[in-house]
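Table S2 (continued). Query chain:
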Amino acid sequence: MSFREKSTWVLLAVTIIVYGWYFATTLGEALGAGVPPVADNVRLFGAVVIMVGLTIVAHIMIAILSPKEADTADERDRLIELRGDQRGGFVMTVALFSTLGLALAGASVFWIAHGALAGLVVSELVKAVTKLVDYRRGV
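Corresponding output:
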């Protein structure tokens, strides 16, 4: 397994864990108690910091375990990255137009912001999964 593939697995796992926790707690409270007037910025900031910290630590560990692969990227890796970006970008575009629909429908700022964040997270998940499929099946 190449460094880029290991990196993709780490990003996928960290994204699912951190944003799964964030959305479960934040949206659970919002649905239970009604929409809060202001989004919980502290929890969102904490989720971003945890995501960045876990990703950095994991990438350092991967680089320590396989230092020769850490700086290499061949044509296949670049093609897989491009294909993942294309698919994730498509999902992000659809999600942002859906968020625009929420704004036009008069939804609260909380739901608009979390719709955009959910679109970003889902597009990153699609990007990671398609990259892993490409690594396993070959391009």
